[in-house]
Write a structure and sequence with these properties.
By secondary structure, the chain is mostly helical. It has helices spanning 25-54, 61-84, 93-109, 112-136, 142-164, 173-193. It is built from six helices and no strands. The chain starts with 24 loop residues before the first helix and ends with a helix.
């Protein structure tokens, strides 16, 4: 190329940096959608569990309902994406149904600050998870990347609300938060594959 010739921009594609044995584009996208659907389903169940314990009259209920309503929108979108792209949900959705509610209810039983610690831990892992997915999506999945970024920002908002509302004041915060983060990361790995 001559000195004055503009450099041709390389188009980034999904699964661009594949190595032999790595998932192809369709497999990678199916994995993303399956795990994101499972995560949003679990998040809805966590907030349902928190609300079931704290009740409608609790001072934090309106905030938790707001977060749940955003998660409902995310879940609805992933339900549609699974159908549009012919991707099956994780086979262990019934486990998420029970585990998500139990995590939400269990932390709420420990008190509102523990419920906030749960929210902070879960949303921190999800923020990182969405960021990694967005980085892997290519130009041909720009619309999906933009949706994931919108959802990621809402998850970050939930995280920040939890911190502002005493998450880190929970007795045993470091242990509780660490266990929840480990559980979330494990759930992500399972949902990606099963």
């Amino acid at each position: 190329m001559g000195k004055n010739m503009p450099e041709k921009r390389k188009t980034k594609t999904t699964a661009d940096c594949r190595l032999p044995g790595d998932l192809n584009r369709e497999q990678l996208l199916a994995r993303f959608l399956r795990v994101d659907h499972a995560g949003e389903y679990g998040a809805v169940r966590i907030y349902q569990g928190q609300l079931a314990v704290l009740g409608d009259k609790h001072p934090k209920s309106a905030m938790i309902r707001h977060m749940k309503e955003q998660e409902d929108v995310h879940l609805d979108r992933f339900n549609n994406l699974l159908n549009e792209r012919n991707v099956r949900p994780t086979a262990i959705t019934p486990l998420w149904h029970i585990a998500g509610f139990a995590l939400g209810a269990g932390t709420a039983l420990l008190g509102e600050k523990a419920a906030m610690a749960c929210t902070e831990a879960v949303e921190e892992v999800i923020d990182q998870h969405y960021s990694a997915q967005i980085e892997q999506l290519g130009d041909e999945e720009k619309d999906l990347a933009e949706e994931l970024e919108k959802f990621r920002q809402e998850e970050a908002e939930h995280h920040d609300l939890a911190v502002e509302n005493g998450a880190r004041e929970t007795p045993g915060y470091t242990l509780l938060s660490g266990m929840i983060k480990l559980g979330c990361r494990t759930a992500i790995k399972i949902a990606e594959r099963i």
